[in-house]
TrEMBL record:
Gene3D superfamilies: 2-enoyl-CoA Hydratase, Chain A, domain 1 (3.90.226.10), Lyase 2-enoyl-coa Hydratase, Chain A, domain 2 (1.10.12.10)
Catalyzed reactions per annotation: a (3S)-3-hydroxyacyl-CoA = a (2E)-enoyl-CoA + H2O; a 4-saturated-(3S)-3-hydroxyacyl-CoA = a (3E)-enoyl-CoA + H2O
Keyword Ribosomal protein: no
Record EC number: 4.2.1.17
Family from the record: Belongs to the enoyl-CoA hydratase/isomerase family.
Keyword DNA repair: no
GO BP terms in the entry: fatty acid beta-oxidation
The name this protein goes by in its record: enoyl-CoA hydratase
InterPro entries: ClpP/crotonase-like_dom_sf, Enoyl-CoA_hyd/isom_CS, Enoyl-CoA_hydra/iso, Enoyl-CoA_hydra_C
Enzyme class name: lyase
PROSITE patterns named among the record's database cross-references: ENOYL_COA_HYDRATASE (PS00166)
UniProt-listed SUPFAM superfamilies: ClpP/crotonase
Length: 258
């Protein structure tokens, strides 16, 4: 939309598309971009017209990290208070499923942004890495916590401590990405996947996302308790009635909330 300068945000049907758009800096995440990205994402998240959000970049780069030029001269207080680092809480708490669609570089904060999403779809050109160690720092958008959860301690430690890049096939093998797609089919596949999600019952999507996130945070017994209650609660929705009736009547469900 017109007021943004570093992203493009557009609803296509029930899918909210956010395209990072700072080609001159390989979509490096500066303060303006992060502010605009979170703003656009929260607007989509608040809308009942949107059932899935896609975050993507260009063919060359999803995002090459936090903006090094913006950070270089900052101190402790600036890191704590301002810049692109502190503001992610709202993004991480969104209800709507979010897909990261990664082609090209997803490095540092770019890889971390992708990991903040519910899952990553990768073009076969994707390259992931946490190269902060080469700059004399460490991951700062959650990479030291989410990468070990995604790919295990050994691989995460090797990535973070060496700063090396991982190609799409290794990322898929390691469980970092849901699927690798040939570059020429990439956006069509992402669009199809997002539209599939967006066609489902919104209350069911919110609950499923919530339970999946609980799996990242809770011990198993707590997570199972959470799921049991959320599952029972789903039976208070019209969409559960409609979904199960449609199955027995051998037709497509016509959900109220989508
Ligand atoms: N910040 C600011 N500018 C960046 C950038 C970044 N993270 N990444 C790339 N750019 C800029 C380059 O400076 C260059 O600009 P100029 O043309 O004005 O010099 C432009 O984007 C194109 O980049 P390159 O010429 O370097 O392109 P390349 O194809 O030769 O190399 C690359 C691509 C390997 C991705 C290389 O750009 C690179 O190593 N980028 C930095 C990656 C990085 O270290 N990311 C981590 C940042 S720290 C961080 O993210 C902290 C955190 O945890 C949140």
């Amino acid at each position: 939309s017109a007021e943004y300068t570093t992203i493009l945000a557009e609803a296509r049907g029930r899918v909210g598309w956010i395209t990072l758009d700072r080609p001159e800096a390989l979509n490096a995440l500066n303060s303006v971009l992060v502010t605009e990205l979170i703003d656009a994402a929260l607007i989509f998240d608040a809308s009942s017209e949107i059932g899935c959000i896609v975050i993507t970049g260009s063919e060359r780069a999803f995002a090459a990290g936090a903006d090094i030029k913006e950070m270089a001269d900052q101190g402790y207080a600036e890191m704590l208070v301002g810049g692109p680092f502190p503001g992610w809480g709202g993004f991480e708490r969104m209800r709507t499923p979010v897909i990261a669609a990664v082609a090209g570089f997803a490095l540092g904060g770019g890889c971390e942004l992708a990991m903040m999403c519910d899952f990553i779809l990768a073009a076969d050109t994707a390259k992931f890495g946490q190269p902060e160690i080469n700059l004399g720092v460490l991951p700062g958008f959650g990479g030291s916590q989410r990468l070990p959860r995604a790919i295990g301690k050994a691989k995460a430690a090797e990535m973070v401590l060496t700063g090396r890049m991982m190609r799409a096939d290794e990322a898929e093998r390691s469980g970092l990405v849901a699927r690798v797609i040939p570059a020429d089919e990439f956006l069509a596949d992402v669009e199809h996947t997002a539209a599939t999600i967006a066609s489902k019952s919104l209350p069911a999507l919110y609950a499923a996302k919530d339970a999946l996130q609980a799996a990242q945070e809770m011990p198993l017994s707590e997570g199972l308790r959470f799921e049991r209650l959320a599952f029972a609660a789903a039976f208070a929705t019209d969409d559960q009635k409609e979904g199960m009736r449609a199955f027995t009547e051998k037709r497509e469900p016509n959900f109220t909330h989508r």
